[in-house]
Amino acid sequence: MASHSSALPHRHDLITSLNTDHHRLGLNVFLFIVLAHWAEHVAQAVQIYVMGWPVPEARGVLGLPFPWLVTSEWMHYGYALLMLVGLIVLRKGFTGRALTWWTISLGIQVWHHFEHLLLLLQALTGVHLLGRPVPTSIIQLLVPRVELHLFYNAVVFVPMVVAMVLHRRPRPDEQARMNCSCATVPA
């Protein structure tokens, strides 16, 4: 009979594997998800600023056939949570400068996640920040939502990519501490 304690080592083994033997695979899958989301925000910005579409009609690529994706606070929160979990789970595989940059990305995503949690809670309760007619995040009081989320995704993405590049090209002292085979330079 399996006990609850037997589930913990399996979870630990998965996280360990994602930060050692399968770190490159985990990073590549995570990067694919992040790029797909980033592409949606860029497509929406192009629809607004290049094609001149009104904001409600500019829904990215997937939002055109599935408009509820754009208005679903659950979907946006789910992605913010996925990003947060991915940054936390894959962090143990980094060392040195790459770890610093990954941690910067994680710190920014903590705030981004908080903003999405605030939006979700407003959508669920119907009580909006400062009596606004729609769910509104704190920084959205200063910056429109489309531009704000394009900015948030950029400021999380850039240090994440810097971390990945530095991780693939570590200094000898950083590579000596690595527990994965992500480095493209020989030890």
From TrEMBL:
<protein>
    <recommendedName>
        <fullName>HXXEE domain-containing protein</fullName>
    </recommendedName>
</protein>
<keyword id="KW-0472">Membrane</keyword>
<feature type="transmembrane region" description="Helical">
    <location>
        <begin position="74"/>
        <end position="90"/>
    </location>
</feature>
<keyword id="KW-1133">Transmembrane helix</keyword>
<keyword id="KW-0812">Transmembrane</keyword>
